[in-house]
Amino acid sequence: MHSTQATSQTTVSCIQVGLAERSYPIYIGRQLYQQLPDLLPNLPRQICIVTNATVAAHYLGAIRAQLPAEAQLLVHEIADGEHAKSLSTYGEVMDTLIHANFNRDCAILALGGGVVGDLAGLVAATYQRGVDFYQLPTTLLAQVDSSVGGKTAINHPGGKNLIGAFYQPKAVVISTDCLSTLEARDFACGLAEIVKYGIIYDGDFFTWLEDNHSQLAARDEQALAYAIRRSCEIKAEIVAQDEREQGLRALLNLGHTFGHAIEAEYYDSWRHGEAVAAGTVIAAHFMQQAGELHSTDVERIERLLSSFELPTLAPQLSETLWQQRMQRDKKVQAGRLRLVLPTRIGAAELRTVTDWPAVWAAICRVTESSQ
Ligand SMILES: NC(=O)c1ccc[n+]([C@@H]2O[C@H](COP(=O)([O-])OP(=O)(O)OC[C@H]3O[C@@H](n4cnc5c(N)ncnc54)[C@H](O)[C@@H]3O)[C@@H](O)[C@H]2O)c1
Ligand SMILES: O=C(O)C(=O)C[C@@H](O)[C@H](O)[C@H](O)COP(=O)(O)O
Ligand SMILES: [Zn+2]
User: Fold this and answer.
1) Tens digit of pLDDT for each residue in 305-364?
2) What's the whole-model pTM score?
3) Which fold has domain 189-366?
4) Whose CA is nearest to atom 15 of ligand 1?
5) What is the secondary structure of 320-355 as a DSSP string?
6) Would residue 58 show up in a list of annotated catalytic residues for this protein?
7) So where are the chain's domains?
8) ipTM score for this prediction
9) Nearest CA to 141 among 258, 259, 24?
10) Domain 12-181 adopts which CATH fold?
């Protein structure tokens, strides 16, 4: 469900994530941090903002100024980067809450990208068995993907997102003006997840992305607002039908079985969106090899990702490492790999894949040469 409403200051789009008693709004607009009292009128007395120093320097002041004067406010800054999605950081946030005597009626606000949101969400899901959680996503990736749908997680040295919970926020507030301060590489990571929605679900959206790639790359306000809104609509529709990934939701994992393997080996040099881009190309080549995806579709996927300066080749990794990492994917059932595979632009399927040599051949076709 999508509606538009005018608050005291600007126009705000609202998409509803329909999950019965756990339904919640996604508000999208500009300068929304200046409108928090209108958008989040029911914040409790105790509020903990989880963020990092990079994001806090830009946006914490505006938010602080909008919170009720009588609120007991805690700010916990985690380190910047994927390494912070860890058990030790999780424990530190818990220590902060416990030492400040935060009660079960407190709220956790995640102010940041996917790292902050995933970690803060897990804290919210588990502190005193669950407290209210609000997402204030500040990266493009978090605005189009990670802040919506309730997947929360931290990493383990053995793999990505291995410890987590499904826990929905009470609301998501997307203030699109935040994106002006985002570095180019992080901006491109968000575009990778946007391209994913076109491939798995909406071929017309993919064509729109092709037609508007230069406006998007230039962060044109109107193009970006549409891409964010359409991405959130698609994610909300999928999550409303399959909250806990029993089937349909797995499509949101296009490219991730490969991507998570790359990330877990190269946290310092590969970002999530980049690894997903390379993983998506591997999935496309696998289907082309099988004669189930037309070469023009593979070329369109590669061209669109490249136009956003995303990688379309995977780094070198031994066959054993690929297998070990991919076996830890959460879609594995009874020891068998299940991959999300595009059948055309606009549709994908979750399939059990037992033909490892075919998977390995696709990986090899899409791997950077050693020269
Ligand atoms: N829960 C989900 O459904 C879901 C979906 C997709 C990705 N993820 C997870 O999200 C993470 C990746 O998220 P990400 O790409 O946002 O990375 P990130 O959270 O590391 O943010 C990227 C960088 O941008 C900085 N930053 C954030 N907002 C900024 C702003 N407005 N201006 C300037 N700098 C800013 C951050 O400090 C960081 O350095 C991964 O851990 C991935 O697994 C989760
Ligand atoms: O919301 C989902 O479902 C997704 O799969 C979205 C992905 O973009 C995201 O990276 C997610 O965290 C991956 O989940 P995982 O279950 O593979 O850890
Ligand atoms: Zn992802």
Assistant:
1) 999 999 999 999 999 999 999 999 999 999 999 999 999 999 999 999 999 999 999 999
2) 0.97
3) Dehydroquinate synthase-like, alpha domain (1.20.1090)
4) 141
5) HHHHHHHHT-TT-BTTBEEEEEEEETTEEEEEEE--
6) no
7) 12-181, 189-366
8) 0.99
9) 259
10) Rossmann fold (3.40.50)
